[in-house]
């Protein structure tokens, strides 16, 4: 059974990444299934408050709210923590009266004052919640939003981001003026921007909170991007892979698709696609009818059919030759190209940590079966 097949099984379901548009669709389908937008927002704001309480004792908290639903989540968070006895202030970009729908409803429940957003409001805050923009970010930060967040970023007060740090594009991880958070609480599933640089570094720790979105919405959405995880490809690894000893005749590869492993500089020499890393890698895979492994500390593995896996790792000195060796070995075990590439990138990280930087491609067939057996056998 091919886990990275179009029928989502559990591994792919858990590892799914949703685009901003798909997340909006998930919200719409949740409402159809009987979970109201008001409830989703209540749960989202409560999740942020809960994660804050898990990490910090009560202290002067400043919640920065924006003009959309991200700001609505901020008002819920402010309300919850104030109820729990925290000293909370709210500052907003735009006017509370202009907040629409459930964001407006939640904002009306905030009993306190709402200050205008400016660097001056930061005075006295010992923890900041960034609920200015999330998935709805449409352009670069400017004016008071940019000035206030930049001032917060220059200070030492920790920032907790709601959904994404304001200014990070959910689909690409690009920054349009965002400052780094120590914690980002997102909802239902991550978006590619939580894993792609510089977004990943700006998010700090990422927590995915359950806000009541029914899992079944994924069947209609059919995600095309996934965070690398053994659950995605372990069922594709033939049992033989765990048992093979060096010298056994290789099993015939499951498919003939070529796998290209490329560093950024190699990628740029071969392709002149523009845009973010996910888009460019997908275009290269489609163009070359090959699985493309675009390496980095945010490695993107793209399949010609449009699916992609994103893998976050600490940069290592390990070579592309070693990664190529691991992927080739997995394919001789009968693994199809796409899951073999995703598994290879994962195992390459584990192998580099286990065996150090001296590991050579030719040693792979001797070492990996034992490693795999220990990890997953
Ligand atoms: N399932 C979920 O993930 C849920 C998420 N929730 C939260 O909702 C936001 C997304 O809400 P949305 O209203 O679509 O967008 P924003 O609040 O991010 O902002 C929209 C608002 O801001 C204006 N705008 C965008 N960029 C700029 C800019 N650079 N400068 C000025 N103004 C800008 C835009 O025009 C809109 O008016 C998501 O992130 C979650 O936090 C739900 O609460 C629950 C379900
Ligand atoms: K935000």
From TrEMBL:
Binding site for K(+): 70, 130, 166
Reactions catalysed: (6S)-NADHX + ADP = AMP + phosphate + NADH + H(+); (6R)-NADHX = (6S)-NADHX; (6S)-NADPHX + ADP = AMP + phosphate + NADPH + H(+); (6R)-NADPHX = (6S)-NADPHX
EC top class named in words: isomerase
Chain segments annotated as coiled-coil in the UniProt record: none
Cleaved signal peptide residues: none
Cofactor: K(+)
InterPro entries assigned to the protein according to its UniProt record, in alphabetical order: CARKD, Ribokinase-like, YjeF_N_dom, YjeF_N_dom_sf
Residue ranges constituting the YjeF N-terminal domain according to the UniProt record: 23-219
Keywords of the record: Isomerase, Metal-binding, NAD, NADP, Nucleotide-binding, Potassium
NCBIfam families: yjeF_nterm
Protein name: NAD(P)H-hydrate epimerase
Lineage: Bacteria, Pseudomonadati, Pseudomonadota, Gammaproteobacteria, Pseudomonadales
């Amino acid at each position: 059974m091919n886990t990275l097949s179009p029928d989502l099984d559990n591994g792919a379901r858990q590892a799914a990444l949703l685009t901003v548009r798909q997340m909006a669709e998930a919200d719409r389908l949740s409402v159809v299934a009987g979970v109201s937008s008001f409830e989703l927002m209540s749960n989202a704001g409560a999740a942020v408050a809960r994660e804050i309480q898990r990490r910090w004792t009560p202290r002067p908290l400043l919640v920065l709210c924006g003009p959309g639903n991200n700001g609505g989540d901020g008002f819920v968070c402010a309300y919850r923590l104030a109820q729990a006895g925290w000293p909370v202030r709210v500052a907003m970009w735009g006017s509370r009266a202009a907040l629409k729908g459930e964001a407006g409803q939640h904002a009306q429940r905030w009993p306190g004052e709402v200050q205008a957003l400016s660097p001056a409001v930061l005075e006295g805050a010992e923890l900041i919640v960034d609920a200015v923009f999330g998935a709805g970010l449409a352009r670069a930060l400017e004016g008071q939003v940019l000035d206030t967040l930049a001032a917060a970023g220059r200070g030492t007060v920790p920032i907790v981001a709601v959904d994404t740090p304001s200014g990070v594009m959910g689909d690409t991880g690009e920054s349009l003026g965002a400052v780094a958070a120590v914690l980002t609480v997102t909802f239902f599933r991550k978006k590619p921007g939580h894993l792609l640089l510089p977004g990943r570094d700006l998010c700090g720790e990422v927590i995915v909170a359950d806000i009541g979105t029914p899992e079944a919405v994924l069947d209609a959405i059919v995600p095309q991007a996934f965070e690398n995880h053994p659950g995605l490809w372990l069922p594709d690894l033939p049992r033989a892979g765990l048992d093979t000893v060096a010298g056994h005749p290789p099993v015939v590869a499951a498919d003939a698709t070529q796998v290209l492993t490329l560093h950024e500089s190699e990628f740029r020499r071969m392709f002149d696609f523009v845009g973010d890393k996910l888009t460019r890698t997908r275009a290269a895979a489609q163009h070359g009818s090959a699985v493309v492994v675009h390496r980095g500390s945010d490695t993107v593995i793209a399949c010609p059919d449009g699916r992609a896996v994103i893998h976050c790792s600490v940069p290592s000195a390990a070579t592309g030759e070693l990664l190529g060796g691991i992927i080739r070995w997995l394919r001789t075990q009968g693994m199809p190209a796409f899951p073999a590439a995703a598994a290879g990138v994962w195992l390459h990280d584990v192998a580099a940590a286990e065996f150090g930087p001296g590991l050579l491609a030719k040693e792979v067939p001797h070492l990996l079966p034992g490693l795999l057996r220990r990890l997953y056998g």
